[in-house]
Specification:
about 425 residues; alpha/beta; eight-stranded parallel β-sheet; two-stranded antiparallel ribbon; 11 helices; about 10% strand
């Protein structure tokens, strides 16, 4: 195993070696990957009335944001994109269910491809983290009718209310998805994936982490179903595997990837048998897809999550609480494994040499450093981010979004010179 002290830095680092994904269809020129990040910068299409369906789309500003961070042969994974109107109604979050949204995302993919970048659409159904008063009146749905166990509030107030009027998730308990509703949800994922490829994306990432719908199926603390999609760990995994299979059937196995967060507690997630749940899922994915699937991305456990989880350590059956056990299973099937949640300008060096992951996925540092790859290559210091500007909507959409400068631009300001 490599170490931070012994790892090569700059262009000599293994971060700047190629990585093949997508069943050989794509080769990344480096292993520094832009993470999916909700930014709430979509624009709202005109509505006929206040009660009309809210449709958020990507536009030229969103394209500029992704283009600024695109590199030749570099992988970008988009913010969560909703596969249907009922999949979530958070303000500023675009979907992929209608023609206007497809056209908006096409502007984005063209901008990224113009710089030689590779871009995947992350498809996400929010499940019980969406509520009717925000989401166009659609009911809250989940694997089971399991209400939230905490006092956590939805991050935005209902229409017409001020910020003091934010409501608690537990006041909007979900309904259990019926068999027919499951089929509709499956169809929504397939259509969104097709729309993604039509919009020019290079692939799709199925989001089965962070406490959203698919993780609500995986987690025993939420999924209380007694049919084939619940009960045992195998049953709880079944809907996620079904989504992967059906999406792969319509867009090709090499164009499909998966995101998991086996350690997560975000969005009131708990599981009594995490190793069996997620380890078993990795085995199924490895056996069913092998190297044909593009990659699997993991959100690793941060210290604050470990400290904040009252049940931390439950369900691991002696396994170490990191991704290495999962990675061993997936690597045996030839599946690349990328990792997010624990990397910064220091810890990335040695990650590849130390066999910790095949690629490193960075989030917030990409926000404030549009030239992050070049900063790592050249040893240029990272710029700090403004957490207060992470999320929109806002009247000045570009602030904290597309107004961060590259290292060279900042240096030019200091010297009074101009950059090309």
């Amino acid at each position: 195993m490599g170490s931070l002290d012994s790892a090569s830095r700059g262009p000599a680092s293994a971060l700047f070696t190629p990585l093949t994904i997508a069943n050989g269809k794509a080769t990344l020129n480096h292993r520094i990957i832009m993470a999916p990040m909700t930014r709430n910068r979509g624009i709202l299409l005109p509505q006929e009335s206040e009660s009309s369906l809210k449709v958020w789309v990507a536009d030229e500003l969103v394209a500029k944001y992704y283009s600024q961070r695109a590199t030749d042969g570099g992988l970008i994974i988009t913010e969560s994109i909703l596969p249907s109107p009922e999949a979530g109604g958070m303000p500023g979050v675009p979907g992929l269910w209608c023609d206007e949204q497809v056209k908006g995302w096409e502007i984005v993919t063209e901008a990224v491809h113009a710089k030689g970048g590779i871009i995947y659409a992350q498809i996400t159904h929010q499940g019980r983290t969406s509520i009717p008063v925000i989401n166009n009146g659609f009911p809250t749905v989940s694997s089971s009718a399991t209400p939230w166990s905490t006092e956590e509030k939805y991050p935005y107030p209902p229409p017409g209310a001020d910020w003091s009027g934010r409501v608690m998730y537990k006041d909007f308990p979900p309904i259990e998805l019926s068999s027919d509703h499951l089929q509709k949800t499956l169809a929504d994922y397939k259509k969104a994936a097709e729309n993604a490829m039509e919009a020019g994306f290079d692939g799709v990432e199925i989001h089965a982490g962070n406490g959203y719908l698919l993780e609500q199926f995986l987690a025993s603390g939420v999924n209380k179903r007694m049919d084939r999609y619940g009960g045992s760990a195998e049953g709880r995994r079944r809907f996620v595997v079904k989504i992967l299979e059906e999406v792969a059937n319509v867009v090709g196995e090499g164009n499909v990837s998966l995101r998991l967060s086996p350690f997560g507690i975000y969005n009131d997630i708990f599981d009594e048998d995490r190793w069996e749940t997620w380890g078993g899922l990795c085995r199924e994915v490895s056996e069913k897809f092998g190297s044909k699937i593009s990659y699997v991305s993991f959100v690793e456990a941060r210290k604050d999550e470990r400290d904040g989880d009252k049940g931390w350590g439950v369900g691991w059956k002696g396994e170490t609480c990191d991704i290495q056990g999962f990675r061993d299973i997936l690597k045996a099937g030839g599946i690349p494994v990328i990792s997010a949640g624990v990397w910064d300008e220091e810890t990335v060096f040695g990650a590849i040499e130390g066999n910790k992951a095949d690629g490193v996925v960075l989030a917030r540092w990409f926000v404030s450093n549009p030239d992050l790859v070049e900063r790592l290559r050249n040893g240029w210091k990272f710029s700090e981010y403004n957490r207060g500007k992470f999320y929109g909507p806002t009247s000045k959409r570009e602030v904290g979004y597309t107004d961060y400068k590259t290292w060279q631009e900042l240096e030019a300001e200091k010297t009074g010179t101009q950059t090309e």
